Amino acid sequence: MSKYSEELKIKIVLDHKNKGFGARILSHMYGPDRKSIEQWIAQYELNGKFTEPTRHFSGEFKLKVLNYQQEHHLSNLATALIFGITDKGTISAWRKKYLTGGTEALFQKQGRYSKMPKKSLIPNKPKEEWTKDEELAYLRMENEFLKKYLALVQEDDRKKQQQRKDREKSKLSKN
Question: 94 with 59: CB under 8 angstroms?
């Protein structure tokens, strides 16, 4: 969901179209920054609607956009409007990736790397077939788990005892 409602965007575009207000004046009147207003006006004039943010683009699409921009000598903003990309900076980022990493960089999956190890510490075979190192690693992991579990149980017990004491104190102070 976008930060600004479609109703507000339409109102801003209509004020620009009908009353002749510029993006700077509209920005002071309604709040959104001038660049966003300019982009909304351009999107509405080109498509008659506003482009909603897209989270994922395929590598083929990115390559197609960059090739089209290069062939037609277009700016990032013009290219973004044609292909329905909400932020012209996205195209700039794709070009940078392409120049530094080539075509493969456009096809790489984007996102955070997992903090969890991909390989399980527990071997995927019967316990009888474990090596000494695998068994030792498993026992160490089990020991750490039990220590943490015991600490959590003790903390929970301490909290319950403290709550009982607090209730008893509040009962005594009421009497």
Answer: no
Cβ atoms within 10 A of the Cβ of 53, count? 11
Note whether 88 and 76 are within 8 A (CB).
yes
Q: What's the CA gap between 114 and 106, in Å, rounded?
A: 21
Check: CB of residue 42 under 8 Å from CB of residue 77.
yes
- Residue 19 burial class via C-beta count within 10 angstroms: exposed 0-12, middle 13-18, buried 19 and up: exposed
Q: What is the pLDDT of residues 152-166, one digit of tens each?
A: 999 999 999 999 988
The whole-angstrom separation of Cα 29 and Cα 23 is 10
> Any idea what the Cα angle at residue 38 is, between residues 17 and 44, rounded to 5°?
55
Q: Show the tokens assigned to 60.
A: 């083929």
Tell me, what amino acid is at 9? Answer: K
CA 25 from chain center: how many Å? 32
- Could you tell me the pTM of the whole model? 0.46
